[in-house]
Amino acid sequence: MTKEEKVEWDQLYDRIEECDRDIAESTAMLTDRKNGRFRKFIEDDIAHEKHIRDMLVEAVGEPKDRRR
What is the model's pLDDT at position 32? Predict the structure, then answer.
């Protein structure tokens, strides 16, 4: 793997970790909000982040499995 490829892979792993953080934060927000419209927006955001995460993990694997 070239240095450039490693940088690209690291960016993908960083994005997976960002998805994990966003999903956790949004899930926590669900307990704080009662507004139906806002709740739907949060649920849609969680679903979107999970979809992105799933695609990235399918392509490069889980961040915990990466070699540093």
Answer: 74
* Burial of residue 13, with CB atoms counted within 10 A of its CB: 0-12 exposed, 13-18 middle, 19 or more buried: buried
Compute the distance between CA of residue 24 and CA of residue 5 in angstroms, rounded to an integer: 29
Tokens of 55: 């695609």
Write out pLDDT tens, residues 20-42: 999 999 998 888 766 667 888 99
What is the C-alpha to C-alpha distance for residues 12 and 27, in angstroms, rounded to an integer?
22
Total-model pTM: 0.84
Q: Are the C-beta atoms of 17 and 56 separated by less than 8 Å?
A: no
For 56, the 3-state DSSP assignment is helix
Residue 44 DSSP class: H
Cα 46 vs. chain centroid, distance in angstroms?
9
